[in-house]
Design goal:
The complex is a heterodimer. Chain A is an all-alpha fold. Chain A has two domains: about 35 residues; about 220 residues, MetI-like fold, CATH 1.10.3720. Chain A is about 75% helix and about 0% strand. In chain A, helix 1 packs across helix 10. Chain A is globular. Chain A starts with a helix and ends with a helix. The relative contact order of chain A is 0.15. Helices cover about 70% and strands about 5% of the residues of chain B. In chain B, helix 3 packs antiparallel against helix 8. The radius of gyration of chain B is 24 Å and the shape is globular. In chain B, about 50% of the residues are buried. The chains are: A mainly alpha, B mainly alpha. Chains A and B meet through helix 1, helix 2, helix 3, helix 4 and helix 5 of A and helix 1, helix 3, helix 4, helix 5 and helix 6 of B.
């Protein structure tokens, strides 16, 4: 009886794992089949208005990269403060709040940015989209930096101080260097995550059918356009949405795997 | 230089606090017209975007209008009559339908994801060999990395037809939205649960095995009690995530403002209401959406705080 119960339990557990892998396989299979069949080279040359995706891909990359360019230094500095400088309760508070923000509903952040950067300005703009993505990204970077810095042994810091280096030199030249690989991985994962975000962009940058690098106007976004295209009745729009989804997912998964690969190599 | 760097890092850290307070204040002030207009009655009012006649003082003539569907139909007749003598109307907004939709879809997601996530966590932590565990763990984490909009599209075109064939009803419904939401939080829940389970000291497990316990007994009597707190924390955290998920649910829940009578009926959730209606909303309607956003933010803030600070304090994630 005990052994039977054990068998049932083990079987159920294995089945759960298979279900998990099954869903991943199913989604990837759909993406590959639908995506590859509607993927053409012309998608990378034409803009959405001509049935291509070029403007959307560039737009999404611009939004995510600029958000990263602002969010990464901010998040790292904040993480450094929490781990290296902070004394007393304040850094604890910041760490907790940042953890909460990491799980905050992205649509609410979109609404917040709409209220401060879209409504007063009078229309959707690229800057608002970047702001929304930055707010999404900073807590993730803080979390990574904080936990990676905590792995750096205290002796390294003491050695630096003993050599007469000032504290910020020790942090920049020794501590950050030692935690470089972990922080890199965290940054890549954070980038992969915001690159696939839709909800914060829906009413901040919105999207555009035309190629544009003008951040003061509504800005082309791959994810928002996927949402719009997928809801259109024409088969051709949906095919385009699948091709875009395929590209987006591959991008996100490759960045993700790259991040993991870097960490693994380091620990070998 | 030292001083500058220190100030810079302090102000970056403080930015988190500023943004968080900023979100609260902004949402609150944007929601203020709706809060003043509807008060806490907003939470139990199932009407959305419904015009009702008002008297000259601006207060609603018929307050029972919100309470039942039968009344609503009668009131529509009344309204036409009223309009003959009194052309003043105002639009009513209530948050009950999205609030109920959010809670129900999250509950369905949890019910579906919980047993499977536990199974996966046990598999990863206890059953699989190291290399298989690594492979499956990676697959599960990749599942978590897929953008939510992809889940929505896949759910709408491939998953929903199967569900509606099996359970009947509409393709877009509370049930399909909840199930896809469940699939989305599955990897997240499994990963944290596995991490909590891994904190069980090997000595405890080994002693149990030495006494002749089966794997099931070790998991049930040693690992679960030991990592219970962390597991509950992971469940609540996953719940917080599910509450705020927008894109996948937007494809699948149907986006209609009606209370679901059956699990296969379409309805709407707070994030979806915001995603779908924000574009065309203005004035009081927009304010009501901000009110919903504020409710969602406060709800998830509380849930995540409970998970993080009560349950997950011990587990380092």
């Amino acid at each position: 009886m005990r052994l039977l119960l054990n068998k049932i339990f083990l079987t159920l557990s294995v089945i759960s794992a298979l279900i998990g892998i099954g869903f991943l396989g199913w989604i990837l299979a759909v993406l590959f089949i639908k995506g590859l069949s509607s993927l053409h080279l012309s998608l990378f040359i034409n803009d959405l208005v001509d049935g291509g995706l070029r403007n959307l891909l560039v737009g999404q990359l611009v939004l995510a990269s600029l958000a990263g360019a602002i969010g990464i230094p901010l998040g790292m500095l904040a993480g450094i403060y929490i781990r290296e400088y902070g004394r007393g309760k304040y850094p604890e508070l910041i760490r907790d709040l940042s953890d909460i923000m990491m799980s905050a509903p992205s649509i609410v952040i979109g609404a917040f940015v709409y209220a401060i950067a879209v409504a007063p300005y009078g229309g959707a703009n690229g800057f608002a989209g970047i702001l929304a993505l930055t707010i999404m990204m900073v807590p993730i970077i803080i979390n990574t930096t904080d936990s990676m810095l905590s792995l750096v042994p205290k002796e390294l810091r003491e050695a630096g101080i003993a050599l007469g280096a000032s504290k910020y030199r020790v942090i920049l030249d020794i501590v950050i260097k030692a935690a470089k690989v972990g922080i890199m991985t965290g940054i890549l994962l954070a980038f992969a995550r915001i690159a696939g975000e839709t909800a914060p962009l829906l009413f901040t940058s919105e999207t555009s059918n035309y190629f544009s690098l003008d951040l003061t106007q509504s800005f082309p976004s791959l994810t928002v356009s996927i949402y719009n295209l997928a809801n259109e009745p024409e088969e051709s729009s949906r095919d385009l949405a699948w091709a875009a989804s395929f590209i987006l997912t591959m991008m996100v998964l490759v960045i993700n795997l790259l991040g993991r690969f870097i960490t693994r190599n380091k620990h070998k | 230089m030292e001083k500058i760097f220190q100030k810079l890092s302090l102000s970056s850290a403080s930015l988190v606090l500023v943004i968080l307070i900023g979100i609260f204040i902004t949402l609150f002030s944007a929601a203020k017209p709706a809060i003043e207009e509807f008060g806490l009655h907003f939470l139990v009012d199932p009407t959305w975007n419904k015009e009702v006649p008002v008297d000259s003082t601006g207060s609603t003539l018929d307050t029972t209008v919100n309470n039942a569907d039968e009344n609503a139909i009668e009131d529509e007749d009344d309204m036409i009559l009223d309009e003959d003598e009194e052309s003043l109307t105002k639009t009513l907004y209530g948050g009950l339908v999205p609030i109920v939709g959010t809670i129900l879809s999250t509950l369905i997601a949890l019910t579906f994801a919980l047993p499977i996530a536990m199974g996966i966590a046990v598999f990863l932590a206890e059953i699989a060999s190291k290399s298989i565990s690594k492979f499956v763990g990676m697959a599960i984490e990749l599942l978590a990395a897929i953008p939510s909009i992809i889940f929505g599209m896949w759910g709408l075109y491939y998953f929903a037809p199967i569900i509606s064939d099996t359970f009947g009803g509409y393709q877009v419904s509370l049930l399909t939205a909840g199930l896809v939401l469940g699939i989305m939080i599955l990897p997240f829940m499994a990963a944290i649960t596995r991490d909590s389970m891994n904190t069980t000291p090997d000595v405890l497990k080994e002693s149990a095995y030495a006494l002749g316990a089966t794997k099931f007994e070790v998991v049930k009597d040693i690992i679960f009690p030991y990592s219970k707190v962390g597991i509950i924390g992971s469940i609540i955290l996953a719940l917080g995530r599910a509450l705020g998920e927008t894109m996948a649910v937007a494809f699948l829940i149907g986006a209609v403002y009606s209370l679901p009578e059956k699990i296969t009926d379409p309805t709407i959730s707070i994030p979806v209401a915001m995603a779908v209606n924000f574009g065309e909303a203005s004035g009081l309607g927009e304010s009501a959406l901000f009110y919903l956003g504020l409710i969602l933010f406060v709800m998830s803030f509380i849930i995540i705080s409970i998970a993080k600070f009560y349950f997950l304090k011990k587990v380092k994630l």
